[in-house]
Protein 1
Amino acid sequence: MRIFTFFMIFIMFFCINKIVLSQCSAGETLIQLNIVPDDWGSEITWQFTGPGGSPTYSSGGPYFDNNTTPVNEDVCVPTGTQVIFTIFDSYGDGICCSEGNGSYSVTVNGVMVATGGEYSTSESTTFFAPVLAYDISMDPITSPFPVLGTGETVSVKGSLRNTSSTTISSLTLSYKAGSEPVVTETFNGLSVAPAGEYQIEFSTLWTPLVTGNQAIRVWLNYINAGNLDLYNDNDTVNINLDVYQGAVIPNRMDDFLAAPPVYSTIATSSNQLNKPTDLDFHSDLNRKELWVINEDTEITGGSTVTIFNAGLSNQSSVYLRDGNAWHFMSLPTALAFGTNSNWASSPGVYDANHDGGAPFTGPTLWSSDMSIYAQNAGPGTNGSHLDMLHETPHGMGIAHHKDNAYWVFDGNSGNIVYYDFVQDHGPGQSYHGDAIIKRYPQVSVLKDSYVPSHLILDKNTGWLYIVDTGNDRVLRMNTNTGTVQSALTGYEAVAEYSQMTGVVSETVIDTGLTRPCGIDIVDNRMIIGDYNTGDIRFYDISVNPVNYLGSLSTGPSGLTGLKIGPEGNIWFTNRLTNRVRKIVPSVTTDIEVVQEPMEIHVFPNPVEDQLNLHFGDKFDFSALIRISDPLGRTIVETSLNNKKQISFNCSDWLEGMYLLSVQNGKENISKIIQVR
């Protein structure tokens, strides 16, 4: 009994002595770090430094692989010091989710200031020791992207972290875009605990009106109803934008049928075309930069031919293949440019790893920057790709939605899938934890064993038109409909993977097509290619069912991709002849566009997330816009500010009927808006 008592006293003395030794000296503050390594601990290092990286108070790592034993470190810093904690991962996939369930946390005198594990190469948090009562740190702006076109309506998004000791219940934030007026919003009903992160999304959307270099600035005004941030240096973030002239493509489709058009060959196998499956123009149409994607072989992976000054006398081309195309671009069926100069491809292979395992395949995001694409210069080991997700074996087609989001034809499951890469992980990296994936099993499609199935989004209406090659038909689905039915489990950890229900879809063409492939839209005209016949068929989509207008013969079979180019001409690829050709009308019909000057166009209506209002010419720049909810409360009040179009984010509005009222001088115009 005495032995046991002595042993317990010794243990207590040792523990007390250990606690005492772990405390800091007078004038110092204790910081405690806890790390749970993932399976690849040898990739993890960390450091505590002062501003600018000096001095270094403490650092650690790497750790042993396959050892997830928690690591605890105590660091003492002078009281009142500003400290930067940074955790690194040499592979670029963070310490959570991809290879284990690692995590980290940092506390100062018991107040947590940082926590996480889902990042790419590194993640930093700046804080004070001791922690300030009110202090937030603004993270970089995530939307809009640095490149976008005029007329494109975008959300202003970002995030911030609570590095204070107080839970945040409300925030007042502002943004200023270009020369536009300042937008200020208060975000209420929050509960952002210390070390927590909040995703910012302003409800007032922005539409750039002029080209050139512009800037967006986002800043903090108040915390918790009037309290000022006690450290202001990290309260403002900026992003510089390169705004190009947005796509304005003339509708010349009826001219192609008025008289025999003129055909010309743009590129052949001498330009290294090798079974081309699709084509698209760079989003800045003034560049006249045409990208063509080659199927090539499964083992080598696909490739691209970029044609500069396409169709002009000084045309040139560049052939490129990414170093890891065997995985990221294996048997590509399509490509689609986003409005931010990135583009995405849909690998048509079942298993991108080619090892007989799980079908780890899906769309890939690429940069159009020639200093990045296919240069394999990223710090990771995965070529130059910007991002890839893996829930769509046999991807038979792809269409851009907005930002880094795309629609994909899943030939393996026979349905349509929405992919949002959100922020790309950088060239050659592998972080996918922020991605959003939504599957629509109600939209049933069938792949052809050999021919791609392309698709295109009509961004004016929200209808996604789908070439259902296996069923010789064309469908459309309303992308403004559908709700989450249940969560799905995929091959990797992402922010959201959901099964959707309640989507509206319908067949629009089910006759006249023998093996449809290739599709594009301009205004109320749609063209569809036919792989077997080589024909291009023209349709009026302003009516339902759509109205067939006529067809053009392009010659031999093998027609794959179709694109209506900057001048309204038709460009197409032929996989069997290894050619890109252009079609130009031989006659031009003058079309007078009559606009109802006092008309307000509201779309979509009903609406779920983004409400767009388009105004005629006679609306005054100071016209007052007011939207009232079903209880008569004003939820939006702003002026037109000399714009033609204004948009609002209404994703958090309650369902019901809203009243839009526009006071234009002495005239008042009202419309009903249905939110669902």
Protein 2
Amino acid sequence: MQTDFLVIGSGIAGLTYALKVAQEFPDLSITILTKTQSDETNTKYAQGGIAGVMDVEQDSFNKHIEDTLIAGDGLCNKAIVEIVVKEGVNRIEELIAWGAQFDKDPDGDYQLGKEGGHSESRILHHKDVTGKEMERTLLEAIRKCSNIKLISHCFVLDIITQHHLGYLVTKSTPDIECYGVYILNLASNKIEKITAKITMLAAGGNGQIYRTTTNPAIATGDGVAMVYRAKGRIENMEFIQFHPTALFEAGVRGQSFLITEAVRGDGGILRNQNGEAFMERYDHRKDLAPRDIVARAIDNEMKINGTEYVYLDCRHMDQHKFHEHFPNIQAKCMSIGIDVSRDMIPVSPAAHYSCGGIKTDEWGRTSIKHLYASGECASTGLHGANRLASNSLLEAMVFSHRSFLSSIAEIVNLKFQNDIPDWNAAGTTAPQEMILITQSLKELKLLMSDYVGIVRNNERLHRANKRLDLLHEETETLYQRTVVSPQLCELRNMITVAYLVVKSAELRKESRGLHFNTDYPKASDILQSTIL
């Protein structure tokens, strides 16, 4: 199969890029690949909203830029921050023109929420399902483009480079090129190759490497792992953001229900087991401090009191307003016997967002030619050591647009690479025991949660590295001798991503932002990224 533009992932980053190139080049072909159904993405689960300077009387670009830089703890690329904040408003207006409906007050003005780390109210939202509304808007627009083909249930195995043509490719190889991908077609269970002139990686995050995460099951770090295997540049993987307030349900592992930060923005108060509002002891911004500070505070309170959760108190809030703004949160709480007007909500931190990823420039270009990256799998320089709430959807739209602009100039001079060999599955057999995969997956999630969580130290990181070495060895042996499956490939990708998180954490000899190492409790004066 050949396609002019290949897009891997159907979240806001992938769909924005695909829609723009489809409208610009009606005679060229665009193919979107997704490994489940088209709307099962991290975008779909984004509750809070999208940040943008919409109220110029109260807010300003400079305020939004400063809030982002403060949250990023010195590691943001200021030029990138300025680009995203200043161009982001145009991208939001573009999305509204495509049909996205954000909540308005009775006067017709947009209701702007406030979240942790923001100095002003600037969060546009659609109740507590903003991501779902944005996903709906983009999918409807995509379906109107006759030159876009969206293929679901399609697992991408590897990026095709000169390596597959028989050349030695290392990280020192100049001008590594992307020619397309190998895929496992889950409908036919056959491995196929897709060649493309330009490939956009919008494969999402990696929260599933942890035992508890707000991410869906698909968030297994496939994009980052593929680029790393292809000798592309990865950076800042140690900065894993734990959302402070995931709903705690005893015995529930895997994907946790998110209690958006907007609840605290509307007045929700965190309390410990004794009913004390504890955040004032940790930061002057109290419950609206940046996420890294709030998550560590909750973690510390749980350890002091020997509990698995703290409480989010919404009992004093306007209940009519709560129902209007957070209907899904209220319904979820009611379904497990929690009446938010009478009961406090048990919450605990859960892995939420990867601030690092595939290193890109200001146009979304990776270190591999003809390969772009956008969304959570990319590291653009916006987030630094900690992402400011509701900046992620904004970043995805801005960089997908900028990647589109770069693609316009690039596509005219590109040809397909026609000498790609078929996938070589010689010597492999069907796996005899799935327990080998499922047990390794449990071990991976456990060691990452216990050793590489909110608080780390050198001994824990060393142990994690040793355990990962063994898991890697066992999984590679299994991969070499058995027929590939989504479960095996996801495990392999997750081990790779976990290794990158641990290795980056070991290289950072300080505590900064989301990376808190008790052996180095202070930040250093030397600011630098960890590039692998």
Protein 3
Amino acid sequence: MSHGKNRRQKPAPLLNFDPDPAVANGPEAKEFRARTGETLRIVPLGGLGEIGKNTMAICYGEDIMLVDAGLAFPSEEMLGVDLVLPDLTFLAQQQSRLRGLAVTHGHEDHIGGIPFLLKEVTLPVIYGPALAIGLLEKKLDESGLSERTKLTQVKPRQRVRMGCFEVEFIRCTHSIADSFSLIIRTPIGVIVHTGDFKFDFTPVDGEHFDIAGLAAACEEGVLALLSDSTNTEREGYTPSERSVWTKLNEAFIQAKGRIIITTFASNVNRVKQVLRAAMNHNRKVTILGRSMLTFAAIARDLGYMQYPDNLLVQVENINQLPPDQVVILTTGSQGEPMSALTRIANDEHRKLKVEAGDTVIISATPIPGNERSVANTINALCIRGAKVIYGRDAGVHVSGHACREEQKLMLNLCKPKYFIPVHGEYRMLVGHGRLAVECGVDPDNVFIMENGDVLELTAEKGKMAGTVQSGVLLVDYNRDFMIDEEIVEERQKLAGDGLVALAVSVDKNGKLLSGPDVSLRGVILPRGLPAEEFVIRLTDEAKKIIAQAEPHDLVSAETVKDLLFEKLTDYFQDQLRSNPLLQVVAMRASLAPADNGANGGGNERERSDRKSVHKKG
């Protein structure tokens, strides 16, 4: 198997989200175009080596089409970050070649990045299933971006053209309604992009995987298969969504009080089953969470679910009903800090409190990285007396992704010459690559890629061919700010080791005039060492550093500051075994004697900029 360059991605520079025509004619863009020739290039910008922000560029000649443009949600240590996006620099450079975007389905990790993409580039058209397009229409209207592209719904087996690419949409089954795999016909052969999929032979909505349509396309010969890797570590088959109904119904029968249930807002089929169970058991439903309300409204408008108007009640009226006639359908399946379920569990919700006798059903599994947050929510619910039904053994959730036997079925249907595992953490991609070899793919034709890698394919051979700029953009969504990764690192340092601020003033010869003035915030000191004593020691250490410094280290405020950074960081590591965020303000002052600045003496003050140093030990 061929592996992409195993590198740590550099943080992407902050982009100005205003289109700049000059970018598309820059040297990097021209160099990439010059190498294109008659070779097909596959360039993942997100979704490889991770779960989330799935974004793929497929390039041939002067044409580029995109498959999905998603986002990811931040991990717990990304303090103040709301959303994580792929670096969009490459797409800005190639603006003139973009022919359109094909959406596989409506999950946020596949469509959530589109509004941000459209702030950077203009797309001629976005094709996708009705539910995904309905969600996108709302997103773009709210962002004022409706004029930046044309949204077009597609139907199963419909073919559309984007430049030299012909794309056919094949119905597949997943955890959201209206999901598609893609048959991409290129000048040198057929590419199959599975999207997120599983083979569900008894789907709740009756929309089966169009295996016949997929097989017919594969009869043309498949040059390359890009396939969902999420569950490659699980043997067997993923259970059908219909299997959830039995366990869900049992929970409703056994519940004597209120039922609080959380699932992914996008899992329309699961929500439909919850509403059906509520109707069967004569319960009213209140829906909490903006995303849950949005999905339910759009899915109902498009005909994906039906329910009577009187089934739903406002949260303000829920306490007027007997507990055994209530269902609360809420967001928060991933333990998100501001979600409705988390606030309810922590007794922070203004209108609802958990009561002894409540049954809470967590109809989802944690996304990798969210396990601790979900566990904290479950603990808080149990403390308040709720019965919590959760976990794989409870049977109230099934995955939307294919397990190994289904992945083998996909490989054997397609029989690709080249195989590129996508959508998964790196170990998942490697495991899926090995599975492809077991199914007969030449090991030399299996490519384990990373975001930013460039794979070149011809009808005869494939090879890794360098990289484009990749990385992440961090978003403070509420304020529409981009956040530099260094700022996030500073916040992590503040949370972990605290802050030390130090100010000094020296004369033109480097002699200390005043200070050091020291303050501590959140610094953990050795047991028995008072803060006042540590401040005295730190002050003496700073004085000693300046007194023993070489003259060239004291020629400006900047050199004084750098000297203190270097020496005090080592001092903290030695004395505290930690590395607090260090903020130094250094001033250099000179004053002519006797005249207080008259007769040409004057005052000169040189203040350093704020600077932080992180020393990894």
Protein 4
Amino acid sequence: MKIEGWILIFVFAGLVALIARPMGLYLAAVFAGRRTWLSPVLAPLERGFYRLGGVKDASEQDWKGYAASLVMFSLLATLALFALMQLQHLLPLNPHGFGPVAPNVAMNTAVSFVTNTNWQAYSGESTMSHLTQMAGLTVQNFLSAAAGIAVAVAFARGFARRGTGQIGNFWVDMTRATLYVLLPISILFAIYLMASGVPQTLAGSLPATTLEGVPQDIAIGPVASQEAIKMLGTNGGGFFNANSAHPFENPDPWTNLVQMLSIFAIGAGLVVMFGRMVGDERQGWAILAAMCALFLVGTGIAYWSETQITPALMSAGVDPSLGNMEGKEVRFGLSASALFAAVTTAASCGAVNAMHDSFTAIGGMIPLVNILAGEVIVGGVGAGFYGILLFAILAIFIAGLMVGRTPAYLGKKIEAREVKLAVLAILASPLAILIGTAIAASTDAGRAGILNPGPHGFSEILYSFASTAGNNGSAFGGLTANTDFYTYAHAIAMLAGRFLVIIPALAIAGSLAAKPTAPASVGTFPTNGPLFIGLLAFVIVIVGALTFLPALAVGPVAEATANTLN
């Protein structure tokens, strides 16, 4: 390991901390309906959308109405995106003349982008027309991210409010998330990417000649606009199959750093926003500190592991001092590749700048563990915030049992209803992951997709269901996932991982919003200090270990052991 690699990792963490507060303050102002510097331009547009949709911005919903609006909107968006992919051959902006997307892949993709998973069982540049990429996939990148932010804001209101069952208005929250947060930042980000060499054009390809004199066409298109929201909205679905390893998506180390920062920016800001909404900013920083501790430990292990050479490279005579450069871009190197892998899986982004399938056994296990932790280490926009608050409720409940007091968080008593709902939400993804993996590993249809035998093949299956149920979208890359079995199984996992977490979270928000706030007393467990930070991180690790250790032992741990013995 080199000192430059550690400097990159800690500089990145420091930059995230610097971004978190201004982003959090801005988010708090936006969702409180206060005037911002964009209001003179966007407020009339916002009001126009409300009039067009028949929405009264002053009216609010209880948790059931909020959840119903989200589910209805997601269903309509899924159907619209599926229809677009089926009809793309009849529509303009299809320079390559692509036909309709296979129904099973179209269904999988529609569910994937609407749930903010962006799992791709296809190659974008050889499957989707420009119109589908722009009006379908890029639009859903905005809307699915906005929906996640809206749920996070509603969940925060559950702790901030008292004596009311109202947690906001889904349509208002989603509109503000899109107009005031995602759209303006994405425009600036896309301009930066274009200035850095990322294509933004309606042309279909670029003629080129290789060094051997062979002519070829290089696919291009409206890449920068999709790339910007892909990162900012923690979507991860790339215009190209190679994703952020492709130089037209991620040209150089500077764009690589900015993309990683954009993945964490809103997720980190949301926890600061939470602290402002509940009247104690330290509450948000405590949650961010727990996230940061888990992230730095995982990133350090991944970086160390990738500096080790694999047995296959050793037998091929590769210089051990180079580390494991297989599947990595030379322009990024080991540290930036390991950091990107940790960032994209700590958040539920799923973009990749290296092939996770080529990581060492332990190095590849870290991205997998990040997802299995529940995507709460910063997490996807909104999803990581309400995900870690579910663990905070569980941690407070455990602390209450230990000291023999009624658990309370931010003055709200945590009772049986909230704990049951939190446990239901926390177990939703693990159930989808483990059941899906078990079925795939024990059936011919599931095993047929494995390209690597043994423990690594099992890891490929486990990673695929972790990625889909965790709404991440990245993959080990060694699994054939466009078969009927995997497209439908992964779609079920994506739906479970999204809505079986969101609906209980909203129910908790509604329950807490209706409760009064009790003042802190001498016996109140402090939730803004080191003790709470340690307890929260400990609960996340223990729940993950107890749930997934047997599966990890069969996959990456067994592979690492075999490599050591060899």
